[in-house]
Amino acid sequence: MPSDSRPEAVGRIDDDHYPAYTMGRAAELIDATPGFLRAVGEAGLITPTRSEGRHRRYSRHQLRLAARARELVDQGTPIDVACRIIGLEDRLDEALRVNEELRRERDE
User: How far is CA 44 from the centre of its chain?
Assistant: First the structure.
């Protein structure tokens, strides 16, 4: 492996949005079925990346969202409602993170 590609590979390890997991592995990690992952994708919660062979690939961030959806569905929440709740929670978390960064920058 060329030495100039190594830092990029190390960066991917820490990248929460890098599509590292196949559908089968992703489903196994969140204790769900591939059909469940397809359903949360169809509901708009996650959009997997496609490999060159057109296989779905998921990031750690997407798996956390899907795992949260599975928790809500297991508690009786309809999948479309669970996906909407999680989408709003995710947007709120991101807004709070950005707000905190802006406050820190302002205070410096």
Answer: 12
Q: How many CA atoms lie within 13 A of 22 on its CB side?
A: 6
> In this structure, are residues 45 and 37 in contact, taking their beta carbons and an 8 Å threshold?
no
pLDDT value for 39: 96
Q: Max Cα separation, the chain?
A: 51
Mean residue pLDDT across the chain = 90
Cα dihedral sign for 72, 74, 78, 79? positive
Q: Which domains does the chain have, with CATH numbers?
A: 15-107 (1.10.1660.10)
Beta carbons within 8 Å of 55's beta carbon, 6+ residues apart: 22, 23
Q: Are 68 and 60 in contact (CB under 8 A)?
A: no
For residues 22-28, give the mean pLDDT. 96
Distance between alpha carbon 58 and the CA centroid of its chain, in Å? 7
